[in-house]
Amino acid sequence: MKKLMTVLLLIIIIGGLVLFLRSRRTTPGAETSSSELPASARSAETSAVPVDAVVAGYHDLTQYISTSGTIEALRNLELTARVAGYVQSVPVADGASVDAQALLVQLDEAPVRLQLQQYRSSLFKALGELVQEMAVNNAPHTTQIRRYYQSAFQQTILPPLPGVEPAGNKNSASLSRAEYLMLARQDIPSLYAQVKQSEQDLAHCRLRAPFSGIISEVRVSPGAYVTAGTRLMRVTNLDRVQVAIDVLEEDLPYVHQGSPLDLVAGQEAVTYHTTVTGVSPTIDPTTRTGKAYANLTNTNHVLKDGQFVEVRLAKQTFQHRLLVPREAVLTRTDRDLVFVVEGGLAKWHYIEQGVQNDREVEILSGVAPGDTVIVGGHYSLAHEASVAVRMVSENQLSTVPSGEE
């Protein structure tokens, strides 16, 4: 019995030794643990993070005033009737393009022509009697008045009358006191004025475009009766426009004639470059804003009268400042920082900011000229992370402001 127990114990001991030796051959301790690898080896196993970067350097920084403005046509006129009468025709419609002197409205001329003829008849009757009186009295300008009477009768438009038209006219004459009394007795000056006024009324029966442009706000139609002063239509020329710019009271001291500005208009965000032509001397007491003005060539008529536009005015320029794009700056634990690439690794540098605008920031400390500063792909980047750098220009940067973490 004792022999049997001894044999069993030996078998158990031998089996345990065999199992122990087999487990030693497959123990991980026999190999080098990955946690015991040096830092350079671990970095090699990690993929580099792709980032965009620029080189920090000295440049001038310009601050801007962002505001709005309204486009105003420099030639924009509401046309009104100059005489009363019935409308015969309106050969234009809203949106029509017209040349200067194009006919816009035609009034009935018959009543005006009849009145003109009556005034002319009264005037020439009086002139005939004046010539007879001057001849009887041997007036020195009898021949001149007679010639005028004979020639003017044949002309549609009455020429200047000697002794009545202002001095300096080629047909004017210095009549004697007696001759002026003869003109007065025949009521010549008054009759002459009536004829000239009636001639103007006849001309005003045809409303013509004062300049080339586009017709809008047509308010009349054939058959309508209008009186002097009735609004008829508007003509607008868009070849040259003015932008009226709203400027806050505190920004007005920075805006002056010649200040450069950018104007952005329309859904396509077309940008125009021009300069301020003038600044209004008054401030709106309600909005506390003033007005600045600039002119633009608008050959293709893209800008419309009354159109709202965005304006960016140059405010002040700071010269020779160490700058980085705003995209480079992050905020972590309430401190501003940027990532600088050193030896293929992204290392954060706490910074102190100076002046800035909507695109660039002045760096007072934390970055040196020539440093490669990350501007994209860095929002979740870790300190000393391996990075693959793509150098970009500022024109390639996103306009989205930097986020905070």
Detailed description of the structure:
- With 405 residues, the chain is α+β, with helices and mostly antiparallel strands.
- It has 4 domains: 49-61 and 319-395, Beta Barrel (conserved putative lor/sdh protein from methanococcus maripaludis s2 fold), CATH 2.40.420; 65-72 and 238-318, Efflux pump adaptor protein, beta barrel domain (Elongation Factor Tu (Ef-tu), domain 3), CATH 2.40.30; 77-108 and 204-235, OB fold (Dihydrolipoamide Acetyltransferase, E2P), CATH 2.40.50; 111-202, no CATH class.
- The protein is built from 6 helices and 20 strands.
- The chain has helices at 2-25, 39-45, 110-136, 142-152, 177-185, 188-204, and strands spanning 49-55, 57-80, 85-89, 97-98, 103-107, 206-208, 213-216, 225-226, 231-248, 260-265, 270-283, 289-297, 308-325, 330-332, 335-342, 345-350, 352-356, 360-365, 372-376, 385-391.
- Strands 14-15-16-20-1-19 form a 6-stranded mixed beta sheet, with no helix packed on it.
- A hairpin with a 5-residue loop joins strand 11 (270-283) and strand 12 (289-297).
- Helix 3 runs antiparallel to helix 4 and helix 3 (110-136) packs antiparallel against helix 6.
- The longest helix has 27 residues, at 110-136.
- It is elongated.
- The model is unreliable at 24-45 and 398-405 (pLDDT under 50).
